[in-house]
Amino acid sequence: MHAHVRWAVAGLGLLQATCAAHSTVASPESTPAAAQTSQAEAKRAPVRDPRELSGQAHFADLVRLAQELDSSGSGHSESGCLLRGTEPLHFEADLSLSVRPLPPVSEHAKEVMDDRAGGITVVSPWGTVGGQTEPSDAILLPFTTTSPGAVKLPTVALFATREGVYLRAAKGVIQGLPSTAVSPEDAGSWLARVTEPAAVYVTAERAIELRRLTELLKLVPNRHEVALAVALPKATRLPAAPADNGEGLCLNGLSEPAASEIEGNLDVAAAQSALAPLREAALSCALSSGGKALLGGKLVLGLRIGPDGRAREACFVSDTIAEPLLRRCLLSCVRDLPLPAPKPAGFADVHLPLQIELAGPKPQRASCD
After folding, report:
1. How far is it, in rounded angstroms, from Cα 76 to Cα 278?
2. Is residue 265 one of the residues assigned to a domain?
3. What is the pLDDT of residues 179-199, one digit of tens each?
4. Residue 34 lies inside a defined structural domain of this protein
5. Which domain holds residue 297?
6. pLDDT tens readout for residues 305-342
7. What global pTM score does this model have?
8. What is the CATH number of the domain that holds 263?
């Protein structure tokens, strides 16, 4: 019997918080008339937009604002872009911090980037990209939301500094990249050579004015997904990712039953009904496991049901996701399910494909203008 479990989750359960504007409350006056006047003036006073910044503000101010919005539960946005306008500038981005709190913004990138043209490592909520096969010049922590597919795209990074823009890319993405800084216009020309969609992560020194950052973002072609990021200090080392030890896998299939065991039959409709709760459980497992589980994929569960209607043996005969925490969670759920007993009394083997598809947030445009 083969059953197929498939589902999608819209938005990955992202929390949406609506911020009520804070109205100004007048202090009590000595007379009712004065109090009414003060209250009327308070109602007419403009309420400051918490996402508004001066174009002369610096990248460090933008990162601080992102931290404040995230801490207050106000990081969600449906605008679909990062920055709007120049004076004032409006921070439109939907936020998804890689770490909390964000680290301090670098003061000088030149000493890290100059005369080096290595790769980059990106640590996002969807997983870590780069750094496994080549040394990294920098480790980036995105703080604006990307789609789950961003970790599967070629990676490019832009570092805005007082000397110019440094470009770094995953091996083979852009041939002949200069190790020194180039002008923003030249940086745009280099990006234009990347004809296939890529994930572009943009960061800056703390004192870079936002109007300069905005102009740089406008040079990113729309075919690329873009996010703002903070660079970790030089010589930062990330802990090695735990290796998949194969827990819960049986790539050669279920074990051979004893020669004396009788193979029974299952009522297909009853088995499908009994396994239905695995849909919701698998969804919960994927969200709680995080990491590669959020990217989705396919697993095939091998299940041997005993004469008592319980899972006697359960493991995954294939797994394209390769997330041990997900497999462990799913197997725990399977073992608790009451299943139909085989008839005649004996065992029955089931292979159940599980296709996990999570509809995450969409890519954001670099500029809203």
Report:
1. 31
2. yes
3. 889 999 999 999 999 999 999
4. no
5. 242-359
6. 999 999 999 999 999 999 999 999 999 999 989 999 99
7. 0.73
8. 3.30.1150
